[in-house]
Structures are given as structure tokens and as C-alpha cells.
Amino acid sequence: MPSPQLPPLPALTRAEAEFIDCYLEVLDQIGRINPARGSDTYGALRAAQALTSRAADLRDALALMHDRGETQIHAATLARALRLLDGERRAGRVTMPPDPTS
Question: d(Cα 33, Cα 48) in Å, to the nearest integer?
């Protein structure tokens, strides 16, 4: 049985794609650090260590966009790309989980 076709990503410049990838990597690391969702200090420590390099990659991606004259962030297009790359779930790991007593 063939796998279902995912919708194509919107057209992005190489710099925008790098921006999205780096942003999601930062979200993943922050989600692993989140004390409300974590289970051990070692995993959080490793994520915090990785966060510094991922944040530098994100900074570099944005600097490249700016240097190339890409001064506008096309939020609707980038949000579509984030949704297709599971960004909503990944961003949800950064927030507080529901209160189990509610």
C-alpha cells in the first residue's frame, strides 16, 4: 500500500528553509529542557548544551537572510511550512502541560 502524499512545502528560499529548520531545532531542544515535561536532569543538560549551537545556527540563518536582502519575514508562508513540518506539536512541548487536577 503506498504511503499517503504529504502536501508540498511552500516555495522557500534556501535561507528561509534554513531559518525554519534551525527554529524547529531550537524548539526541540527547549522542549527537552522544559522542567514541566522532563524526566531526568541528564537529558535536560544535554539539550541545554545542544541549544547553544542550535541558537547560533538560527542566528546565522537570520543573518544570512538579512545579508541577502531578505528583510521581510513572510509569516503566512513560513507558518504553512512550520505546520507541514509538525511545528505545532514541537512547539507544544515548550508550553505547560494541562493541569491534571482540572
Answer: 6
DSSP labels for 46-62? HHHHHHHHHHHHHHHHH
pLDDT of amino acid 101:
84
Maximum CA pair distance of the chain? 51
Q: What is the CA radius of gyration of the chain?
A: 16
CB 35 within 8 A of CB 44: yes
Q: Distance between CA atoms of 81 and 76, rounded to whole angstroms?
A: 9
Q: Are 70 and 13 in contact (CB under 8 A)?
A: yes
Global confidence as pTM: 0.87
